[in-house]
Specification:
heterodimer; A: 125 residues; mainly alpha; 80% helix; B: 238 residues; alpha/beta; Spore Coat Polysaccharide Biosynthesis Protein SpsA, Chain A; seven-stranded mixed sheet
């Protein structure tokens, strides 16, 4: 049986595969957190699933009350935007982890009160 | 019993339970130092703990459980504590169990001791959620890793020897990303085993939460959890 896919389905599926592969690659290289990985895996799978269900696009047509189905150009633009959000999320993730490490290090360094030492001093008195 | 022990209690908005936790720990183990790591609480957690006798280290903002725990590790290393114990600030961990968790470390039997909820409880006494949690996070995960013989990989009631802490801190600092709060113990357990650190489990009892809500298991976090498990597999085993 030959399944003929619409253009938007092909674009959606391609995007979905790219996103999932990127997600796996980054997690394998330990570049993204578990939360980011989980979120984008879900998004990638959802885009893939939605792309192969034509009824979804008909639903969008009803919701937006447009005369035509979403064009491949609009679909591509949307998916590119999503990819950009993924990239920004990844960078944000990287920066926030650096901040957390710094917070831990600075807090530990700023912490100067050692109860044990203080207690020992009290005993000496 | 060694007195060079630091008890760390990471806490975020636990003002209703923290006083009791700190006072019980201090009453039971007056020779130990108690450090509350106040993870940017918006309530009176810090002042309650301080008035109960703990020393309080306040993070500049709510940085999450991983940051709070990492801070505790760094403090323990900086002040040359031989042992570090972590208990929750919500009162679910029984301070009486601290001695039990520390014992394998004092005896030199392990580098990390983990309090297991499942060694003590019989399966039929558990709720469905707990049984599911155990099957999912411990059994499946353990079999996948093929090296672990740990029944409660997600338990946060733990104790470390100084050398183990040093190794773990070096590893965490070398990673680009830190583990998420919800999989921190899972990541740490697998990493520790991979690094050849000895882990010993001891049975503990976990009490039901009396005040407030769990910060670990919101609906969104539970949905993400299976994916994070796969991530953990990639990160620590793969």
């Amino acid at each position: 049986m030959i399944v003929v896919l619409e253009r938007y389905s092909i674009i959606g599926l391609t995007f979905s595969v790219i996103l999932i592969l990127l997600d796996f690659y980054l997690v394998k290289k330990r570049r993204i957190s578990g939360g980011t990985y989980a979120l984008w895996l879900i998004i990638g799978l959802s885009v893939g699933a939605v792309s192969i269900v034509p009824a979804f696009f008909t639903l969008l047509l009803i919701i937006f009350e447009t005369q035509f189905l979403i064009s491949a150009v609009i679909g591509t633009a949307f998916l590119t935007l999503l990819l950009l959000v993924f990239y920004l999320h990844y960078r944000l993730n990287e920066v926030s982890d650096r901040v957390i490490k710094l917070v831990a290090e600075i807090s530990a360094l700023k912490y100067n009160f050692n109860p044990k030492r203080e207690r020992e001093n009290e005993d000496d008195c | 019993m060694s007195d060079n022990v630091l008890v760390m209690i990471p806490a975020y908005d636990e003002e209703r339970t923290i006083r009791k936790v700190v006072m019980t720990v201090r009453d039971l183990y007056p020779e130990f130092d108690v450090l509350l790591i106040n993870d940017g609480s918006t309530d009176g957690t810090g002042s309650e703990a301080e008035s109960a006798g703990a020393t309080v280290l306040t993070l500049p903002f709510h940085a999450g459980g991983t940051a709070a725990v990492l801070t505790g590790y760094l403090v323990a290393l900086r002040f040359n504590y031989d042992y570090l114990v972590k208990v929750d600030g919500d009162g679910q961990h029984k301070p009486d169990d601290i001695a039990r968790v520390l014992q394998p470390l004092f005896d030199g039997l392990s580098d990390i001791a983990v309090g297991s909820r499942y060694l003590r409880n019989k399966p039929e006494q558990d709720s469905m959620v707990r049984i599911g949690g155990r099957v999912f996070s411990s059994t499946i995960f353990s079999r996948l890793s093929k090296q672990m013989n740990v029944t409660d990989v997600t338990s946060g009631f733990r104790a470390w020897r100084r050398e183990a802490l040093r190794r773990l801190v070096d590893i965490y600092m070398s990673w680009t990303t830190l583990p998420d709060d919800s999989v921190l113990w899972l990541v740490e357990t697998t990493t520790a085993i991979k690094e050849g650190l000895r882990i010993k489990e001891v049975p503990i009892e976990v009490l039901p939460r009396t005040c407030g809500k769990s910060k670990s298991f919101t609906l969104i976090k539970m949905l993400k959890y299976p994916f994070k498990m796969v991530y953990t597999l990639f990160k620590t085993i793969g």
